Amino acid sequence: MKQKIIDLIASNVEGLNAEEISALIEIPPKPELGDFAFPCFRLAKTMRKAPQMIAADIKEAIGDVDFLQEISVQGAYLNFFIKKDIFVKSMVEAASSENFGGSTIGAGKTICIDYSSPNVAKNFHVGHLRTTIIGNSLYKIYSKLGYDVKRINHLGDWGTQFGKLIVAYKAWGNEEAVKKDGVGELMKLYVKFHDEAKNNPALDDEARAWFVKMEQGDEEALKIWQWFKDISLIEYKRTYDLLGMDFDYYLGESFYRDKTDDVVNRLTSANLLTESEGAKIVDLEAYDMAPCLILKNDGSSIYATRDLAAIFYRKETYNFVKCLYVTGQEQKLHFAQVFKVVELLGNDWAKDQLVHIPYGLVSLEGAKLSTRSGNIIYAEDILLEAISKIKEIIEEKNPELPDKDETAKKIGVGAVLFNDLYNQRIKDVSFKWEKLLNFDGETGPYVQYTYARCSSILRKLENYDENAPIDYSLITDADSIDLLKEISRFPQVVIDASEKYEPSQVARFAVAVAQSFNKFYNANRINIEDEALKNARVSLVKLTRKTIKDAMLLLGIECPEQM
Ligand code: ARG
Protein backbone atom coordinates (compact mmCIF):
# COMPACT_ATOMS: atom_id res chain seq x y z
CA MET A 1 0.00 0.00 0.00
CA LYS A 2 2.78 2.39 0.88
CA GLN A 3 4.35 1.68 -2.48
CA LYS A 4 1.09 2.54 -4.23
CA ILE A 5 0.94 5.86 -2.41
CA ILE A 6 4.56 6.55 -3.32
CA ASP A 7 3.84 5.85 -6.99
CA LEU A 8 0.81 8.09 -6.85
CA ILE A 9 2.77 10.99 -5.42
CA ALA A 10 5.75 10.39 -7.68
CA SER A 11 3.64 10.65 -10.80
CA ASN A 12 1.97 13.85 -9.65
CA VAL A 13 4.85 15.76 -8.09
CA GLU A 14 7.99 16.95 -9.77
CA GLY A 15 11.36 17.21 -8.13
CA LEU A 16 11.18 14.26 -5.72
CA ASN A 17 12.12 10.69 -6.56
CA ALA A 18 10.44 7.61 -5.12
CA GLU A 19 13.10 7.10 -2.49
CA GLU A 20 12.78 10.66 -1.19
CA ILE A 21 9.01 10.37 -1.11
CA SER A 22 9.23 7.09 0.76
CA ALA A 23 11.40 8.69 3.43
CA LEU A 24 8.92 11.55 3.84
CA ILE A 25 5.76 9.46 4.14
CA GLU A 26 4.54 9.11 7.69
CA ILE A 27 2.10 6.80 9.43
CA PRO A 28 -0.21 9.24 11.23
CA PRO A 29 -0.47 8.86 14.99
CA LYS A 30 -4.29 8.98 14.91
CA PRO A 31 -6.71 7.17 12.60
CA GLU A 32 -8.60 10.45 11.98
CA LEU A 33 -5.52 11.53 10.08
CA GLY A 34 -5.67 8.70 7.61
CA ASP A 35 -3.50 5.67 6.91
CA PHE A 36 -0.58 7.50 5.37
CA ALA A 37 0.43 11.15 5.42
CA PHE A 38 2.69 13.17 3.17
CA PRO A 39 4.12 16.48 4.46
CA CYS A 40 4.67 19.22 1.91
CA PHE A 41 7.13 21.41 3.85
CA ARG A 42 10.09 20.31 1.80
CA LEU A 43 8.38 21.06 -1.48
CA ALA A 44 7.55 24.55 -0.25
CA LYS A 45 11.21 25.55 -0.54
CA THR A 46 11.68 24.46 -4.14
CA MET A 47 8.22 25.42 -5.34
CA ARG A 48 8.17 28.73 -3.47
CA LYS A 49 4.57 28.27 -2.47
CA ALA A 50 2.82 27.75 0.85
CA PRO A 51 2.82 24.05 1.77
CA GLN A 52 -0.98 24.11 2.24
CA MET A 53 -1.40 25.26 -1.34
CA ILE A 54 0.96 22.61 -2.62
CA ALA A 55 -0.96 19.94 -0.73
CA ALA A 56 -4.22 21.14 -2.26
CA ASP A 57 -2.69 21.17 -5.76
CA ILE A 58 -1.38 17.61 -5.40
CA LYS A 59 -4.78 16.44 -4.19
CA GLU A 60 -6.34 18.08 -7.23
CA ALA A 61 -3.81 16.50 -9.59
CA ILE A 62 -4.29 13.02 -8.16
CA GLY A 63 -8.08 13.12 -8.47
CA ASP A 64 -10.10 9.96 -7.87
CA VAL A 65 -8.24 6.71 -7.28
CA ASP A 66 -9.84 3.28 -7.07
CA PHE A 67 -8.18 2.15 -3.83
CA LEU A 68 -8.62 5.45 -2.01
CA GLN A 69 -11.56 6.45 0.09
CA GLU A 70 -10.41 10.01 0.35
CA ILE A 71 -7.45 12.36 0.31
CA SER A 72 -7.73 15.21 2.76
CA VAL A 73 -5.58 18.28 3.15
CA GLN A 74 -4.86 19.20 6.73
CA GLY A 75 -2.42 22.02 7.15
CA ALA A 76 0.74 21.13 5.27
CA TYR A 77 -0.20 17.47 5.13
CA LEU A 78 -1.91 15.31 2.57
CA ASN A 79 -3.71 12.53 4.41
CA PHE A 80 -4.53 9.38 2.52
CA PHE A 81 -7.47 7.22 3.57
CA ILE A 82 -7.36 3.82 1.93
CA LYS A 83 -10.64 1.97 1.30
CA LYS A 84 -10.93 -0.18 4.37
CA ASP A 85 -11.49 -3.58 2.79
CA ILE A 86 -8.62 -3.07 0.38
CA PHE A 87 -6.35 -1.89 3.16
CA VAL A 88 -7.29 -4.78 5.43
CA LYS A 89 -6.82 -7.30 2.67
CA SER A 90 -3.41 -5.98 1.72
CA MET A 91 -2.24 -5.94 5.35
CA VAL A 92 -3.51 -9.44 6.07
CA GLU A 93 -1.95 -10.84 2.93
CA ALA A 94 1.41 -9.20 3.54
CA ALA A 95 1.52 -10.32 7.15
CA SER A 96 0.54 -13.88 6.27
CA SER A 97 3.57 -14.46 4.09
CA GLU A 98 6.05 -16.98 5.45
CA ASN A 99 8.95 -14.59 5.95
CA PHE A 100 6.91 -11.56 7.04
CA GLY A 101 9.21 -9.19 8.93
CA GLY A 102 12.20 -10.53 7.05
CA SER A 103 13.78 -9.52 3.79
CA THR A 104 16.63 -10.39 1.47
CA ILE A 105 18.54 -7.12 1.76
CA GLY A 106 21.42 -8.99 3.37
CA ALA A 107 21.66 -11.78 0.81
CA GLY A 108 25.24 -12.58 -0.11
CA LYS A 109 26.65 -10.39 2.67
CA THR A 110 28.43 -11.51 5.80
CA ILE A 111 28.29 -9.90 9.20
CA CYS A 112 30.55 -10.97 12.04
CA ILE A 113 29.28 -10.49 15.57
CA ASP A 114 31.83 -10.75 18.33
CA TYR A 115 29.91 -11.18 21.58
CA SER A 116 29.63 -12.99 24.88
CA SER A 117 33.39 -13.65 25.07
CA PRO A 118 33.80 -14.42 28.78
CA ASN A 119 37.23 -14.52 30.37
CA VAL A 120 38.55 -18.02 30.98
CA ALA A 121 39.04 -18.95 34.64
CA LYS A 122 36.55 -16.28 35.64
CA ASN A 123 32.87 -16.76 36.18
CA PHE A 124 30.28 -16.01 33.55
CA HIS A 125 28.76 -13.02 35.27
CA VAL A 126 25.75 -10.85 34.60
CA GLY A 127 27.70 -8.35 32.48
CA HIS A 128 28.51 -11.17 30.08
CA LEU A 129 24.87 -12.09 30.15
CA ARG A 130 24.08 -8.75 28.53
CA THR A 131 26.55 -9.08 25.65
CA THR A 132 25.33 -12.63 25.12
CA ILE A 133 21.66 -11.64 25.00
CA ILE A 134 22.16 -8.54 22.84
CA GLY A 135 24.61 -10.27 20.49
CA ASN A 136 22.30 -13.23 20.04
CA SER A 137 19.37 -10.96 19.25
CA LEU A 138 21.42 -9.04 16.67
CA TYR A 139 22.36 -12.37 15.13
CA LYS A 140 18.66 -13.28 14.80
CA ILE A 141 17.74 -9.85 13.44
CA TYR A 142 20.46 -9.83 10.77
CA SER A 143 19.70 -13.42 9.83
CA LYS A 144 16.06 -12.46 9.34
CA LEU A 145 17.25 -9.83 6.86
CA GLY A 146 19.12 -12.45 4.87
CA TYR A 147 22.67 -11.79 6.07
CA ASP A 148 25.08 -14.62 6.65
CA VAL A 149 25.97 -14.03 10.28
CA LYS A 150 29.08 -15.46 11.94
CA ARG A 151 28.65 -15.74 15.69
CA ILE A 152 32.08 -15.43 17.22
CA ASN A 153 32.93 -16.07 20.84
CA HIS A 154 36.21 -14.21 21.37
CA LEU A 155 37.05 -15.91 24.66
CA GLY A 156 39.46 -14.10 26.93
CA ASP A 157 41.83 -17.06 27.01
CA TRP A 158 45.25 -15.47 26.69
CA GLY A 159 47.25 -12.92 28.62
CA THR A 160 49.40 -12.40 31.70
CA GLN A 161 46.54 -13.40 34.01
CA PHE A 162 47.22 -17.02 33.01
CA GLY A 163 50.82 -16.64 34.11
CA LYS A 164 49.47 -15.55 37.50
CA LEU A 165 47.07 -18.46 37.65
CA ILE A 166 49.80 -20.96 36.87
CA VAL A 167 51.97 -19.52 39.62
CA ALA A 168 49.06 -19.60 42.07
CA TYR A 169 48.05 -23.11 41.12
CA LYS A 170 51.60 -24.39 41.55
CA ALA A 171 52.01 -22.64 44.89
CA TRP A 172 48.64 -23.12 46.57
CA GLY A 173 46.36 -25.16 44.38
CA ASN A 174 45.67 -28.84 43.97
CA GLU A 175 44.10 -30.91 41.26
CA GLU A 176 41.25 -32.23 43.40
CA ALA A 177 39.99 -28.81 44.41
CA VAL A 178 40.07 -27.51 40.84
CA LYS A 179 38.26 -30.61 39.59
CA LYS A 180 35.65 -30.22 42.26
CA ASP A 181 34.96 -26.48 42.20
CA GLY A 182 36.03 -25.53 38.68
CA VAL A 183 35.99 -21.82 37.95
CA GLY A 184 35.12 -21.05 41.58
CA GLU A 185 38.44 -22.55 42.69
CA LEU A 186 40.37 -20.83 39.90
CA MET A 187 38.95 -17.49 40.99
CA LYS A 188 40.02 -18.16 44.56
CA LEU A 189 43.55 -18.89 43.36
CA TYR A 190 43.56 -15.67 41.36
CA VAL A 191 42.46 -13.61 44.37
CA LYS A 192 45.06 -15.37 46.51
CA PHE A 193 47.75 -14.47 43.98
CA HIS A 194 46.85 -10.78 44.20
CA ASP A 195 46.81 -10.85 47.99
CA GLU A 196 50.22 -12.50 48.14
CA ALA A 197 51.78 -10.41 45.39
CA LYS A 198 51.10 -7.24 47.37
CA ASN A 199 53.84 -8.26 49.79
CA ASN A 200 55.90 -10.31 47.40
CA PRO A 201 56.44 -8.54 44.06
CA ALA A 202 58.68 -11.40 42.89
CA LEU A 203 55.47 -13.31 42.24
CA ASP A 204 54.60 -10.87 39.49
CA ASP A 205 57.91 -11.52 37.78
CA GLU A 206 57.30 -15.24 38.02
CA ALA A 207 53.85 -14.78 36.50
CA ARG A 208 55.24 -12.76 33.62
CA ALA A 209 57.83 -15.43 33.02
CA TRP A 210 55.15 -18.12 32.83
CA PHE A 211 53.17 -16.09 30.34
CA VAL A 212 56.28 -15.63 28.22
CA LYS A 213 56.67 -19.41 28.36
CA MET A 214 53.10 -19.79 27.17
CA GLU A 215 53.78 -17.46 24.26
CA GLN A 216 56.84 -19.51 23.40
CA GLY A 217 54.83 -22.73 23.35
CA ASP A 218 56.14 -24.30 26.56
CA GLU A 219 54.45 -27.67 26.94
CA GLU A 220 53.86 -27.65 30.68
CA ALA A 221 52.48 -24.13 30.69
CA LEU A 222 50.14 -24.83 27.80
CA LYS A 223 48.89 -28.02 29.36
CA ILE A 224 47.78 -26.31 32.57
CA TRP A 225 46.32 -23.43 30.57
CA GLN A 226 44.34 -25.79 28.31
CA TRP A 227 42.98 -27.58 31.35
CA PHE A 228 41.78 -24.31 32.91
CA LYS A 229 40.17 -23.42 29.63
CA ASP A 230 38.36 -26.75 29.28
CA ILE A 231 36.99 -26.45 32.80
CA SER A 232 35.75 -22.94 32.13
CA LEU A 233 34.10 -23.88 28.85
CA ILE A 234 32.10 -26.64 30.51
CA GLU A 235 30.62 -24.06 32.87
CA TYR A 236 29.97 -21.49 30.14
CA LYS A 237 28.24 -24.07 28.00
CA ARG A 238 25.83 -24.83 30.81
CA THR A 239 24.77 -21.19 30.70
CA TYR A 240 24.54 -21.17 26.89
CA ASP A 241 22.37 -24.30 27.04
CA LEU A 242 20.01 -22.65 29.51
CA LEU A 243 19.78 -19.67 27.20
CA GLY A 244 19.34 -21.91 24.16
CA MET A 245 22.20 -20.13 22.44
CA ASP A 246 25.16 -21.25 20.42
CA PHE A 247 28.13 -19.93 18.43
CA ASP A 248 29.63 -20.67 15.05
CA TYR A 249 33.16 -20.16 16.34
CA TYR A 250 34.85 -20.27 19.68
CA LEU A 251 37.96 -18.47 18.59
CA GLY A 252 39.43 -16.88 21.66
CA GLU A 253 42.36 -14.53 21.99
CA SER A 254 44.76 -17.48 22.07
CA PHE A 255 43.84 -18.30 18.48
CA TYR A 256 45.60 -15.12 17.38
CA ARG A 257 48.82 -15.65 19.31
CA ASP A 258 50.72 -16.72 16.21
CA LYS A 259 49.17 -13.89 14.20
CA THR A 260 50.38 -10.95 16.25
CA ASP A 261 53.83 -10.93 14.60
CA ASP A 262 52.10 -10.13 11.37
CA VAL A 263 50.39 -7.16 13.03
CA VAL A 264 53.74 -5.91 14.31
CA ASN A 265 55.23 -6.31 10.82
CA ARG A 266 52.42 -4.38 9.17
CA LEU A 267 52.78 -1.58 11.72
CA THR A 268 56.54 -1.52 11.33
CA SER A 269 56.43 -1.30 7.53
CA ALA A 270 53.85 1.46 7.77
CA ASN A 271 56.15 3.32 10.15
CA LEU A 272 53.46 3.50 12.77
CA LEU A 273 55.28 1.87 15.70
CA THR A 274 57.11 4.00 18.18
CA GLU A 275 59.03 3.05 21.26
CA SER A 276 57.91 4.26 24.66
CA GLU A 277 59.59 3.13 27.89
CA GLY A 278 60.63 -0.11 26.25
CA ALA A 279 57.13 -0.81 24.96
CA LYS A 280 55.90 -0.51 21.37
CA ILE A 281 52.96 1.75 20.77
CA VAL A 282 51.00 3.50 18.04
CA ASP A 283 50.78 7.20 18.83
CA LEU A 284 47.21 8.41 18.46
CA GLU A 285 47.63 11.91 19.80
CA ALA A 286 46.56 13.40 16.49
CA TYR A 287 43.19 11.76 17.08
CA ASP A 288 42.85 12.85 20.69
CA MET A 289 43.36 9.38 22.00
CA ALA A 290 45.82 7.72 24.33
CA PRO A 291 48.42 5.61 22.46
CA CYS A 292 47.49 2.06 21.49
CA LEU A 293 49.88 -0.33 23.24
CA ILE A 294 51.04 -3.11 20.91
CA LEU A 295 53.91 -4.87 22.67
CA LYS A 296 54.88 -4.66 26.32
CA ASN A 297 58.50 -4.11 27.29
CA ASP A 298 58.99 -7.87 27.67
CA GLY A 299 57.87 -8.22 24.05
CA SER A 300 54.57 -9.92 24.81
CA SER A 301 51.39 -9.05 22.97
CA ILE A 302 48.32 -7.61 24.63
CA TYR A 303 44.54 -7.55 24.25
CA ALA A 304 44.66 -4.85 21.55
CA THR A 305 47.32 -6.68 19.52
CA ARG A 306 45.18 -9.76 19.40
CA ASP A 307 42.12 -7.72 18.47
CA LEU A 308 44.07 -6.25 15.56
CA ALA A 309 45.11 -9.73 14.44
CA ALA A 310 41.49 -10.89 14.75
CA ILE A 311 40.24 -8.08 12.51
CA PHE A 312 42.64 -8.95 9.70
CA TYR A 313 41.93 -12.65 10.10
CA ARG A 314 38.15 -12.08 9.96
CA LYS A 315 38.35 -9.73 7.01
CA GLU A 316 40.40 -12.25 5.05
CA THR A 317 38.44 -15.31 6.16
CA TYR A 318 34.84 -14.07 6.08
CA ASN A 319 35.07 -10.90 3.98
CA PHE A 320 32.54 -9.23 6.27
CA VAL A 321 30.59 -6.10 5.36
CA LYS A 322 30.44 -5.40 9.07
CA CYS A 323 32.11 -6.67 12.18
CA LEU A 324 30.20 -5.83 15.37
CA TYR A 325 31.61 -5.89 18.89
CA VAL A 326 29.14 -6.13 21.74
CA THR A 327 30.80 -5.18 25.04
CA GLY A 328 30.30 -2.86 28.00
CA GLN A 329 30.87 0.83 27.39
CA GLU A 330 34.09 0.79 29.42
CA GLN A 331 35.76 -0.66 26.31
CA LYS A 332 34.83 2.29 24.16
CA LEU A 333 38.34 3.72 24.07
CA HIS A 334 39.89 0.31 23.41
CA PHE A 335 37.81 -0.21 20.28
CA ALA A 336 38.22 3.37 19.11
CA GLN A 337 42.01 2.89 19.30
CA VAL A 338 42.04 -0.49 17.62
CA PHE A 339 39.73 0.63 14.79
CA LYS A 340 41.83 3.76 14.25
CA VAL A 341 45.01 1.69 13.98
CA VAL A 342 43.37 -0.53 11.34
CA GLU A 343 42.37 2.58 9.42
CA LEU A 344 45.86 4.07 9.68
CA LEU A 345 47.19 0.91 8.07
CA GLY A 346 45.38 2.02 4.92
CA ASN A 347 42.08 0.27 5.45
CA ASP A 348 39.41 2.83 4.80
CA TRP A 349 36.68 0.26 5.35
CA ALA A 350 37.46 0.30 9.06
CA LYS A 351 35.53 3.56 9.36
CA ASP A 352 32.12 2.11 8.72
CA GLN A 353 32.60 -1.63 8.88
CA LEU A 354 33.97 -1.96 12.40
CA VAL A 355 31.35 -1.08 14.95
CA HIS A 356 31.49 -1.11 18.71
CA ILE A 357 28.09 -1.75 20.29
CA PRO A 358 28.22 -0.75 23.94
CA TYR A 359 25.62 -1.38 26.59
CA GLY A 360 24.86 -0.17 30.12
CA LEU A 361 25.55 -1.73 33.48
CA VAL A 362 23.62 -4.40 35.32
CA SER A 363 22.47 -3.88 38.85
CA LEU A 364 20.69 -6.20 41.21
CA GLU A 365 18.02 -4.11 42.93
CA GLY A 366 20.13 -1.07 42.24
CA ALA A 367 23.47 -2.44 43.48
CA LYS A 368 26.28 -2.59 40.95
CA LEU A 369 27.68 -6.09 40.62
CA SER A 370 31.37 -6.72 40.58
CA THR A 371 33.49 -9.83 40.76
CA ARG A 372 36.06 -8.05 42.89
CA SER A 373 33.81 -7.12 45.80
CA GLY A 374 33.04 -10.70 46.77
CA ASN A 375 29.49 -10.02 45.65
CA ILE A 376 29.87 -12.56 42.86
CA ILE A 377 26.77 -13.18 40.79
CA TYR A 378 26.80 -15.96 38.23
CA ALA A 379 24.55 -15.52 35.19
CA GLU A 380 23.58 -19.16 35.59
CA ASP A 381 22.21 -18.50 39.08
CA ILE A 382 20.11 -15.60 37.87
CA LEU A 383 18.58 -17.78 35.16
CA LEU A 384 17.96 -20.68 37.52
CA GLU A 385 16.36 -18.37 40.04
CA ALA A 386 14.03 -16.92 37.42
CA ILE A 387 13.03 -20.42 36.35
CA SER A 388 12.36 -21.57 39.90
CA LYS A 389 10.31 -18.48 40.73
CA ILE A 390 8.16 -19.09 37.66
CA LYS A 391 7.83 -22.75 38.60
CA GLU A 392 6.41 -21.66 41.97
CA ILE A 393 3.88 -19.41 40.27
CA ILE A 394 2.82 -22.24 37.98
CA GLU A 395 2.46 -24.68 40.88
CA GLU A 396 0.29 -22.16 42.64
CA LYS A 397 -1.87 -20.97 39.76
CA ASN A 398 -1.96 -23.74 37.21
CA PRO A 399 -0.64 -27.02 38.66
CA GLU A 400 -2.29 -29.07 35.90
CA LEU A 401 -0.21 -27.42 33.16
CA PRO A 402 1.56 -29.98 30.93
CA ASP A 403 5.37 -29.74 30.50
CA LYS A 404 5.71 -27.61 33.59
CA ASP A 405 9.51 -27.66 33.67
CA GLU A 406 9.95 -26.85 30.02
CA THR A 407 7.37 -24.07 30.26
CA ALA A 408 8.91 -22.59 33.41
CA LYS A 409 12.26 -22.54 31.60
CA LYS A 410 10.87 -20.71 28.58
CA ILE A 411 9.09 -18.15 30.73
CA GLY A 412 11.87 -17.67 33.29
CA VAL A 413 14.68 -17.35 30.78
CA GLY A 414 12.43 -15.32 28.49
CA ALA A 415 11.67 -12.89 31.31
CA VAL A 416 15.38 -12.25 31.92
CA LEU A 417 16.06 -11.79 28.22
CA PHE A 418 13.11 -9.51 27.72
CA ASN A 419 14.02 -7.37 30.71
CA ASP A 420 17.47 -6.95 29.22
CA LEU A 421 16.27 -6.05 25.75
CA TYR A 422 13.25 -3.90 26.47
CA ASN A 423 15.12 -0.64 27.03
CA GLN A 424 17.74 0.95 24.83
CA ARG A 425 20.87 -1.09 25.32
CA ILE A 426 22.90 1.85 26.60
CA LYS A 427 20.58 2.19 29.59
CA ASP A 428 21.42 0.29 32.77
CA VAL A 429 19.45 -2.86 33.46
CA SER A 430 18.13 -3.65 36.89
CA PHE A 431 16.85 -6.97 38.13
CA LYS A 432 13.66 -6.49 40.04
CA TRP A 433 12.01 -9.86 40.19
CA GLU A 434 8.47 -8.60 40.85
CA LYS A 435 8.78 -6.36 37.85
CA LEU A 436 10.39 -8.61 35.30
CA LEU A 437 8.36 -11.70 36.14
CA ASN A 438 5.07 -9.81 36.19
CA PHE A 439 2.52 -11.30 33.82
CA ASP A 440 0.98 -7.98 33.04
CA GLY A 441 3.55 -5.30 32.69
CA GLU A 442 5.74 -4.58 29.72
CA THR A 443 7.41 -7.93 30.20
CA GLY A 444 8.33 -11.16 28.50
CA PRO A 445 5.72 -13.16 30.42
CA TYR A 446 3.02 -10.69 29.36
CA VAL A 447 3.86 -11.09 25.68
CA GLN A 448 4.17 -14.87 26.04
CA TYR A 449 0.85 -14.93 27.84
CA THR A 450 -0.79 -13.12 24.95
CA TYR A 451 0.72 -15.65 22.57
CA ALA A 452 -0.62 -18.54 24.68
CA ARG A 453 -4.01 -16.84 24.69
CA CYS A 454 -4.01 -16.78 20.87
CA SER A 455 -3.03 -20.45 20.80
CA SER A 456 -5.79 -21.29 23.22
CA ILE A 457 -8.41 -19.40 21.20
CA LEU A 458 -7.39 -21.33 18.10
CA ARG A 459 -7.41 -24.66 19.94
CA LYS A 460 -10.90 -24.09 21.23
CA LEU A 461 -12.50 -23.06 17.95
CA GLU A 462 -15.64 -24.93 17.00
CA ASN A 463 -17.05 -25.34 13.50
CA TYR A 464 -14.15 -23.57 11.98
CA ASP A 465 -13.16 -24.14 8.38
CA GLU A 466 -9.49 -23.45 7.93
CA ASN A 467 -9.87 -23.03 4.17
CA ALA A 468 -12.97 -20.87 3.96
CA PRO A 469 -12.31 -17.64 2.07
CA ILE A 470 -12.06 -14.53 4.23
CA ASP A 471 -14.35 -11.59 3.67
CA TYR A 472 -12.12 -8.65 4.58
CA SER A 473 -14.92 -6.14 4.35
CA LEU A 474 -16.20 -7.52 7.67
CA ILE A 475 -13.21 -6.15 9.54
CA THR A 476 -14.21 -2.57 10.14
CA ASP A 477 -13.89 -1.74 13.84
CA ALA A 478 -11.10 0.51 15.05
CA ASP A 479 -9.55 -2.10 17.37
CA SER A 480 -9.14 -4.62 14.58
CA ILE A 481 -7.67 -2.08 12.20
CA ASP A 482 -5.31 -0.79 14.90
CA LEU A 483 -4.14 -4.33 15.55
CA LEU A 484 -3.49 -4.90 11.86
CA LYS A 485 -1.63 -1.63 11.53
CA GLU A 486 0.50 -2.51 14.51
CA ILE A 487 1.36 -5.91 13.06
CA SER A 488 2.13 -4.32 9.69
CA ARG A 489 5.00 -2.37 11.20
CA PHE A 490 7.05 -5.54 11.69
CA PRO A 491 9.27 -5.35 8.55
CA GLN A 492 10.19 -1.74 9.23
CA VAL A 493 10.81 -2.46 12.90
CA VAL A 494 13.30 -5.20 12.03
CA ILE A 495 15.14 -2.91 9.64
CA ASP A 496 15.23 -0.07 12.17
CA ALA A 497 16.47 -2.44 14.86
CA SER A 498 19.28 -3.61 12.56
CA GLU A 499 20.31 -0.12 11.54
CA LYS A 500 20.46 1.12 15.11
CA TYR A 501 21.71 -2.16 16.57
CA GLU A 502 18.73 -1.92 18.91
CA PRO A 503 16.84 -5.12 19.73
CA SER A 504 14.73 -2.93 22.04
CA GLN A 505 12.79 -1.83 18.98
CA VAL A 506 11.66 -5.40 18.45
CA ALA A 507 10.86 -5.88 22.15
CA ARG A 508 8.74 -2.74 22.18
CA PHE A 509 7.01 -3.85 19.02
CA ALA A 510 6.14 -7.20 20.63
CA VAL A 511 4.56 -5.43 23.59
CA ALA A 512 2.63 -3.07 21.30
CA VAL A 513 1.21 -5.98 19.30
CA ALA A 514 0.26 -7.81 22.50
CA GLN A 515 -1.46 -4.73 23.92
CA SER A 516 -3.25 -4.08 20.68
CA PHE A 517 -4.38 -7.67 20.51
CA ASN A 518 -5.74 -7.64 24.04
CA LYS A 519 -7.74 -4.53 23.25
CA PHE A 520 -9.08 -6.17 20.11
CA TYR A 521 -9.91 -9.32 22.07
CA ASN A 522 -11.80 -7.41 24.76
CA ALA A 523 -13.93 -5.76 22.14
CA ASN A 524 -14.51 -8.69 19.79
CA ARG A 525 -15.75 -12.18 20.57
CA ILE A 526 -14.14 -14.75 18.34
CA ASN A 527 -15.92 -18.06 18.67
CA ILE A 528 -19.28 -16.81 17.41
CA GLU A 529 -22.15 -18.18 15.34
CA ASP A 530 -21.66 -15.90 12.36
CA GLU A 531 -19.15 -17.97 10.42
CA ALA A 532 -17.98 -15.31 8.03
CA LEU A 533 -17.25 -12.86 10.83
CA LYS A 534 -15.65 -15.60 12.90
CA ASN A 535 -13.35 -16.47 10.00
CA ALA A 536 -12.32 -12.87 9.58
CA ARG A 537 -11.55 -12.44 13.27
CA VAL A 538 -9.73 -15.75 13.49
CA SER A 539 -7.44 -14.57 10.72
CA LEU A 540 -6.35 -11.71 13.01
CA VAL A 541 -5.73 -14.08 15.91
CA LYS A 542 -3.56 -16.23 13.67
CA LEU A 543 -1.57 -13.26 12.43
CA THR A 544 -1.04 -11.98 15.96
CA ARG A 545 0.12 -15.38 17.11
CA LYS A 546 2.57 -15.75 14.25
CA THR A 547 3.92 -12.22 14.55
CA ILE A 548 4.45 -12.40 18.30
CA LYS A 549 6.20 -15.73 17.93
CA ASP A 550 8.54 -14.43 15.22
CA ALA A 551 9.27 -11.17 17.03
CA MET A 552 10.08 -13.01 20.24
CA LEU A 553 12.37 -15.39 18.37
CA LEU A 554 14.33 -12.35 17.22
CA LEU A 555 14.97 -11.68 20.90
CA GLY A 556 15.97 -15.29 21.49
CA ILE A 557 12.75 -16.05 23.36
CA GLU A 558 10.46 -19.01 22.80
CA CYS A 559 6.73 -18.82 23.45
CA PRO A 560 5.04 -21.78 25.18
CA GLU A 561 1.66 -22.87 23.78
CA GLN A 562 0.09 -22.93 27.21
CA MET A 563 0.89 -21.15 30.43
N1 ARG B 1 36.79 -10.88 27.05
C1 ARG B 1 36.41 -9.49 27.01
C2 ARG B 1 35.76 -9.10 28.32
O1 ARG B 1 35.20 -9.92 29.00
C3 ARG B 1 35.47 -9.16 25.90
C4 ARG B 1 36.00 -9.41 24.51
C5 ARG B 1 35.31 -8.60 23.50
N2 ARG B 1 35.77 -8.86 22.16
C6 ARG B 1 36.89 -8.43 21.64
N3 ARG B 1 37.19 -8.78 20.41
N4 ARG B 1 37.73 -7.69 22.30
O2 ARG B 1 35.75 -7.94 28.67
Structural notes for this entry:
The protein has 563 residues and is an alpha/beta fold. 55% of the residues lie in helices and 11% in strands. It is built from 23 helices and 14 strands. The strands form four sheets. A five-stranded parallel β-sheet has the order 6-5-4-10-11, sandwiched between helices. Strands 1-3-2 form a three-stranded antiparallel β-sheet. The longest helix is centred in the middle third of the chain and has 25 residues.
Beta-strand portion reads 5-15%
Shape: flat
Give the biggest beta sheet.
5 strands, parallel
Radius of gyration, in Å, reads 29 Å
Binned, the helix content reads 40-55%
Measured between the Cα atoms of the first and last residue, the distance is 37 Å
What assembly state would you assign to the polypeptide chains in this entry?
single chain
Q: Could you tell me which ligands this complex binds, including any ions or cofactors?
A: arginine
Structural class given helices, strands, pairing?
Answer: alpha/beta
The main sheet orders its strands as 6-5-4-10-11
Count of helical regions = 23
Mean of the pLDDT scores? 94
Low-confidence stretches: 366-373
Q: Please tally the β strands and state the result.
A: 14
How would you concisely characterize the structure shown here?
With 563 residues, this protein is of the alpha/beta class. It has 23 helices and 14 strands. The strands form four sheets. A five-stranded parallel beta sheet has the order 6-5-4-10-11, with helices on both faces. It has a three-stranded antiparallel beta sheet with strand order 1-3-2. Strands 7-8-9 form a three-stranded antiparallel beta sheet.
